[in-house]
């Protein structure tokens, strides 16, 4: 049933490209484990050992905060249609903020989404597949536009103020550094 691979193969990449949803998990040595659903066509496989995804502004900033203290990340993809499959990518990740030198070059791989907050660059160390036979069938109806609409209405300055007001600490009270790390250096 389950198999392990040192990197992504062509079949894995095709499966990932077909998914509308993935999950990301991170944790520090102490505190809460964060598990978040992600969508919005915001993930790209750059190579068999490298995955990049764009994180947009939300109510928390757990993933970036956790990576400052422990770079482990797991991405999980599930087949909600067709042949059953669960695919997990385990590896080391880093957050890239808008003020970082690599932002422009890496952001070019992804759609420009309002409220863009960080890019996450995952170096894949292990790929694991499992059967997924208990995952229910679900019909994809489309993307939700509320978050994009909210970010557009806020505008860039409003988003930065939101980071200041709501994204500076994790659920465990750990500083995220979002305001300092995202300053434009242009």
Automatic annotation (TrEMBL):
Coiled coil, from the record: none
Domain of life: Bacteria
Transmembrane segments: none
Domain Pyridoxamine 5'-phosphate oxidase N-terminal, residue spans: 11-130
Name recorded for this polypeptide: Putative pyridoxine 5'-phosphate oxidase superfamily flavin-nucleotide-binding protein
């Amino acid at each position: 049933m389950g198999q392990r691979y040192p990197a992504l193969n062509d079949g894995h990449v095709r499966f990932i490209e077909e998914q509308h949803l993935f999950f990301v998990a991170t944790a520090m040595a102490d505190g809460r484990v964060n598990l978040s659903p992600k969508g919005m066509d915001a993930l790209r496989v750059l190579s068999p050992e490298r995955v990049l995804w764009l994180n947009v502004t939300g109510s928390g900033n757990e993933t970036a905060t956790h990576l400052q203290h422990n770079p482990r990340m797991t991405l999980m993809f599930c087949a909600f249609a067709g042949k059953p499959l669960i695919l997990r990518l385990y590896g080391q990740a880093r957050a890239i903020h808008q003020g970082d030198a690599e932002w422009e070059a890496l952001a070019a791989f992804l759609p420009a989404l309002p409220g863009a907050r960080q890019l996450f660059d995952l170096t894949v160390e292990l790929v694991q597949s499992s059967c997924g036979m208990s995952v229910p069938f679900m019909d994809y109806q489309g993307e939700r536009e509320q978050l994009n609409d909210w970010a557009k209405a806020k505008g860039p300055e409003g988003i930065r103020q939101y980071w200041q007001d709501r994204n500076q600490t994790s659920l465990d009270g750990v500083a995220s550094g979002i305001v300092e790390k995202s300053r434009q250096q242009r």
